[in-house]
Amino acid sequence: MPPLDPATFCDPDPRDEARNARHLSKYVFPLQYRLSNVFISQLPAKANYKQPDLTDREREIQVRQGLACEGTWTLLGTCKTPKRLKDVLGLLEKMIWRHGKCHYKLLRDKVCPSKVSSLNDHMH
Known about the structure:
The chain is mainly alpha-helical. It has helices at 14-28, 58-65, 86-101, 104-111, 115-123. The chain contains five helices and no strands. Helix 1 (14-28) crosses helix 3 (86-101). It starts with 13 loop residues before the first helix and ends with a helix.
């Protein structure tokens, strides 16, 4: 990643950062938002069990916020951030900021250097 030019750099919008932290909290704490999760089954006890697909929660979040409509789902209420999670949002913002700042490839190459690339360097 190239270094940032101070002349063209602008601070991220705090509202966008807060929105991203609230969105991430829906993945980290799905029970607090009454979203489906791996620990609670939404099916009646006698129904055939089908493993829910929890890899992408975006559709469920959109339905919960009233941005989308899904066949059998009715709008189950808003997806407001519970008061008990307000203090955590600052930590999630910091985690997102650090994630964006971290150079994962450089870190990986330093901690786990590849012998293949070092062999290629010695051949040339």
